[in-house]
């Protein structure tokens, strides 16, 4: 066993992070399912899947709510949310490969 592996505090933290990662993936899956419902509506009406204005509003709101009260910075909130939006859009496009928007 390595020195690192023998450190119980580090192991406890890693276990907790693993649990949080699982929770995050479950939440992201729920989020994606709802985004796909929105994509289905937009697909029917011919609307563009991506809405930069809505994305900007969401980021601004989350930065306002959390940037000063948590260890997350304004920039990290922006990066995390932009990655979520990009990945959501990629999944939406995979479900609706015929869409040009
Ligand atoms: C979810 C929507 O569609 C797209 C996906 C978004 C998201 O993943 O949060 C936000 C805006 C749009 O780019 C929406 O229009 O509300």
From TrEMBL:
A GO molecular function term, named singly, is: chorismate mutase activity
SMART domains given for it?
A: CM_2
Q: Which residues cross the membrane?
A: none
Q: What class of enzyme is it?
A: isomerase
One Gene Ontology term from the biological process aspect of the record: chorismate metabolic process
Source superkingdom: Bacteria
Q: What is its EC number?
A: 5.4.99.5
Pfam annotation, one family: CM_2
The Chorismate mutase domain, residue ranges: 4-96
Q: What name does the UniProt record give this protein?
A: chorismate mutase
Classification of source organism? Bacteria, Pseudomonadati, Nitrospinota/Tectimicrobiota group, Candidatus Tectimicrobiota, Candidatus Entotheonellia
